[in-house]
Design goal:
Strands 1, 2, 3, 4, 5, 6 and 7 form a 7-stranded mixed β-sheet that branches. Strand 13, helix 17 and strand 14 form a beta-alpha-beta unit. The protein folds into 5 domains: 92 residues; 110 residues, no CATH class; 202 residues, P-loop containing nucleotide triphosphate hydrolases (Rossmann fold); 74 residues, no CATH class; 165 residues, P-loop containing nucleotide triphosphate hydrolases (Rossmann fold, 3-Layer(aba) Sandwich). The chain contains 25 helices and 23 strands. The chain is of the alpha/beta class. The longest helix is centred in the first third of the chain and has 45 residues.
């Protein structure tokens, strides 16, 4: 970019002015916070000195409590003022790293002057309430992401506002220094996107706020629906879109949605560390993130040892059999706490048997719960009858343990009921939880949004459990049907049936553009798909290195060649991953390489920024690497069936810039045709 370009100079001048405003604001807010802190400390000191603690009589006690109330009110006022300034200071400091990344000029009517908006990672106004920078999540910013110059629109509170987009300008800048600007109209000409994609990856995922593309923006700003299913090809930015969607929801519902009311579910523990900086870098808090075992632990039905497979048919059998199920005394147990039995099993059955005219389910057990609480209160009351409100509060506070056990239905023996329902001695953890939900109506009413990453790796039974447990929450599920690398996983068509029952219609969005892999790598993994999907897939990356496929004559030769590739990668920039299709294959490979083996990544480990690592495919899902070396591309590892095809597609698509595929004696038939075509193309050149 030429520095004598008048537009460049004007934009640099605007950036310098904006940056100066931000630095002044930072200083002012810091001083205001210090002043508030000093004033609050002085106020508390004065109040304490004037405070008279007198509980000699009810009147004096009431006056003392009133003084406490005044003190608390004053302190709350200081805290509210300090919190508001601290939140604004955090936004200022966030913008000081890069005040904005885009500019749009909008004309609202033909006879009006156009209005200019600068878009950044956070929004900020000056003392006159004029915008310094608008938040990327604001309605006006939608005109930038829609990538359509000319007549366009945005929506505010359900009202569509028509405008003319006369300028869409992107900026590359560092703090107060403008590096370049670009006037763009369509995604394929997006120089900032190409620049960001060409940068060396790090060990942590980065926010994509400045380079969100049109199809991604459609998902991020999608209207609030009960269930949104995103089916995206490898490298289409599904996880980034999910995190930007969470940030968007926090902005849209900033007065009502708390971070712990959003739950992100992942099957990959490495994934949690990989994404942990994205939302904080956007000025938002991370939601709760749970792996499947952590979710089950939270519900009180932990999975012990190796997870047992749960059939969806067994859960459907629970639903279908409960209506006619006859409860027995052995289906309940007593209420004990702290070594003391408060209600015997006979007492519990007496309460339950009053309502057996109802089907076994939430109504019956809710009525039984109320009866058990009443019985326990009577027994614990000094008068031996239903206590008044004051006595009731005292009893429930003093004996919170047994009351909590009644309310959490620990007295229901799901093992006994499940044994007769399913005709088996032992239930899986998922079956126990599902049965408890079916019997008691147990659910999480606090969580408002559930985000499920890599949804293609969940079984139908797991999704049935989630759908029922979070019955009142809204779901966003993201995955790639072609990355289902384990058998017995839920098809996307089944997800419509599962969530449709509890939540209504399931809406689906497709993401078909790869932002991770080079065109050469994208073409290779796309060759494994159906022709219909293949022609819809594209890559926006610049042309790169052709994939390398080598078939070695023996295991010794393969190990030697692999060691050479590893040695070469260790001296290069970026992160290289040696992938195997299974954990056992990984262990064998590490043993064969000996001291030449790279570091093995296991569950819970963080990824380094550069170097060479080895990991099995199940852990690599959802991650990306500069180079992927596939060390076992043999026919017996990647067979021609659906699972073999999906595993190969997943492994290859982890690579951004280069993929090296090694096989011993014979190459998987899945790649034989592609290799034959490549050799034919080379011979014609």
């Amino acid at each position: 970019m030429e520095y004598n370009d008048p537009t460049f100079l004007q934009e640099q001048q605007h950036l310098s002015g904006t940056y100066e405003k931000l630095t002044i604001l930072e200083t002012e807010l810091e001083e205001q916070l210090r002043t508030l802190k000093d004033a609050a400390l002085e106020e508390k000191k004065n109040i304490r000195e004037d405070l008279t603690l007198n509980f000699d009589s009810d009147v004096n006690a009431m006056e003392t409590y009133a003084e406490f109330e005044v003190m608390n009110h004053v302190i709350d006022g200081y805290n509210i003022a300090a919190d508001a300034r601290a939140e604004k200071l955090a936004r200022v400091r966030q913008l000081l790293k890069a005040p904005y990344f885009a500019r749009v000029c909008l004309r609202y009517a033909p006879d009006e002057e156009e209005e200019t908006f600068y878009i950044g990672s956070a929004g900020l106004t000056d003392e006159h309430h004029d915008h310094i920078v608008i938040d990327w999540r604001s309605p006006v910013a939608e005109t930038y992401y829609s990538q359509a110059n000319g007549r366009t629109s945005y929506t505010v509170d359900g009202r569509k506002i028509e405008v003319d987009l006369t300028l869409r300008r992107q900026f590359s800048l560092q703090r107060d220094r403008l590096l370049a600007y670009f006037d763009t109209s369509i995604a394929i000409e997006d120089p900032l996107l190409l620049d960001s994609l060409s940068r060396r990856r790090t060990d942590r995922m980065q926010a994509i706020t400045a380079t969100i593309q049109k199809e991604q923006n459609t998902v991020i700003r999608h209207r609030d629906v009960p269930v949104l299913l995103v089916n995206g090809i490898a490298g289409s930015g599904k996880t980034s879109v999910m995190l930007q969607r969470i940030a968007y929801l926090f902005y849209q519902k900033r007065d009502s949605l708390k971070p712990d009311q959003v739950c992100l579910l992942t099957l990959n523990p490495v994934f949690r560390k990989y994404i942990e900086n994205v939302l904080p870098d956007m000025g938002e808090s991370n939601p709760r993130t749970l792996t499947w075992p952590e979710f089950m632990e939270q519900t009180g039905c932990p999975e012990r040892g190796r997870q047992a497979f749960t059939s969806a048919d067994s859960l459907r059998q629970i639903d279908g059999s409960l209506a006619g199920f006859i409860l027995q005394p052995s289906d309940v147990t007593g209420i004990s706490h702290g070594g003391h039995t408060f209600l015997s099993a006979a007492d519990v059955w007496k309460a339950v048997s009053k309502y057996t005219r109802f089907p076994a389910g939430p109504r019956l057990f809710s009525l039984a719960e109320d009866a058990l609480e009443e019985t326990l209160r009577r027994r614990l009351s000094k008068r031996g009858k239903e206590p008044d409100r004051k006595e009731r509060n005292r009893i429930e506070n003093q004996f919170a343990g047994p009351f909590n056990k009644i309310r959490s239905f620990t007295w229901i023996r799901t093992d006994s009921i499940g044994r007769r329902l399913l005709g088996r001695d032992r239930l899986t953890a998922a079956e126990s939880l599902y049965l408890k939900m079916a019997l008691t109506g147990m659910e999480d009413k606090y969580t408002r949004y559930v985000m499920v990453d890599e949804v293609q790796d969940y079984t139908e039974a797991q999704l049935m459990v989630l759908s029922r447990y979070y019955r009142t929450a809204r779901f966003m599920m993201l995955g790639d049907e072609n990355q289902a690398i384990m058998p017995d996983r839920a098809a996307f068509s089944a997800m419509n049936d599962i969530f449709g029952r509890d939540h209504g219609r399931v809406l689906t969005c497709d993401l078909m553009t790869s932002y991770r892999s080079s065109p050469e790598i994208t073409e290779l993994f796309a060759s494994l798909l159906t022709e219909r999907d293949r022609i819809r897939i594209s890559s926006v990356r610049r042309p790169g290195i052709e994939p390398v496929i080598e078939v070695l004559p023996s295991g010794k030769a393969l190990v030697g060649r692999l060691a050479e590739w590893i040695s070469r990668a260790e001296n290069e920039e970026g992160l290289t991953a040696v992938l195997t299709s299974s954990v056992s294959g990984l262990e064998r490979l590490a043993a064969r390489l000996g001291d030449r083996a790279p570091a093995v990544i296991r569950r819970g480990d963080a990824l380094p920024e550069r170097g060479v690592i080895a990991m099995d495919l199940s852990l690599a899902k959802g991650l990306e690497f500069d180079t992927v070396i596939l060390a076992d591309a043999d026919p017996d590892v990647y067979s021609g069936d659906r699972i073999g095809r999906n595993r190969l597609y997943t492994a290859i698509s982890r690579a951004a810039a280069r993929v090296i595929i090694l096989a011993e004696k014979e190459l998987t038939p899945l790649l034989a045709e592609w290799q034959k075509q490549q050799l034919s193309d080379e011979s014609r050149r």
